[in-house]
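Today's session is about reading a structure prediction critically. Students often jump straight to the picture, but the first step is always the sequence itself: look for stretches that repeat, for charged clusters, for runs of hydrophobic residues. Only then move on to the predicted structure, which in these notes is written as discrete structure tokens rather than atom positions. Here is the chain we will use throughout the hour.
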Amino acid sequence: MRTSKFLNLTGLILLVVGVTVATNYVVDRISGSSPVDGNSFANDKIPASYANFRNVGAAGETDFTVAAELTVNAVVHVKVKSEVQVSQFGGRDQLFEYFFGPQFRQQQPQIREGAGSGVIISEDGYIVTNNHVIDKSKEIEVVLNDKRTYSATVVGADPNTDIALLKIDEKNLPYIIFGNSDSLKVGEWVLAVGNPFNLTSTVTAGIVSAKARNINILNSAMPIESFIQTDAAVNPGNSGGALVNQRGELVGINTAIASRTGSYAGYSFAVPTTIVRKVVDDLKEFGEVQRALLGVVITTVTADVAQDYNLGKIEGVYVDNVSDNGAAKEAGIRSGDVIIAVGNKKVNTNAELQEAVSQYRPGDDVK
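Below is the predicted structure for this chain, in token form.
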């Protein structure tokens, strides 16, 4: 066994450009390209509503009233209209069809309506939602909890994480501040806030059931799945809504459920804010996501993998192959190595490695 089998992914890694195609609108520019970390959240501007609760007495561990009050007015109802083409069989002429096959008649385009949720993340009208909520939409209407309605524009979208950023023209809006999803613990209480079945401003509670879940639900070129799994009730219409901790901080965007019926069956999944915030920052600054790539083929180290490759420990992510022109090869990573951390963040699954790398841009240093 080579001494380099286990390593910390440190030093200068020239991360390869992996720019995801997104809606080409650039609305604003923001500063800084550092990866998300826990310290950055503490420096955010705090809404007045949060300051009001700064000195609130200690509540019971299962008292969610403060978190609900802080967030319910910052979660919006997203209504979309999209144009679909519908084809159907024409009039039945059996003799004609016998010789020439079935007849088709193209109908006029039809308007299909859909709905989901969104989260206001700034007082000037930036709203995060799921890409699948607004994908291929012709019109987007946002309804606030106080019933005010606005036409929304798409700043950008990222199918690889199922995150989209909208903008409405308004000021002094209530908004939810970002929390650090890395600090979530399995078993911790969380709230899901959204509009299931068009029931506006619905709050449900559950616990974090697992982290870094990959459920292979995203159908895109380079899907990044590292979901927070919860048992908070989430149903159709909750997509794009907020997952918040007991302090009312945004820790995820509710995205999917695991169900045989299409309705809640005990399992729901949210994109963590470690991914969401990087996507939002990129969409604001560039109109598209600038994604770092390592250039490796990887496998989660299990007991079988450790035995097959004679590894000393069951930890990390095993490198099956390294791309010739990738950042990993340039950094000295070889087939047979095991990646156990990205910077100071330990990784033990493919999903955890993807989530960690997704927080960087091409050219960032990983130390």
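Discussion point for the tutorial: The domain at 6-20+290-358 is CATH 2.30.42.10 (Pdz3 Domain).
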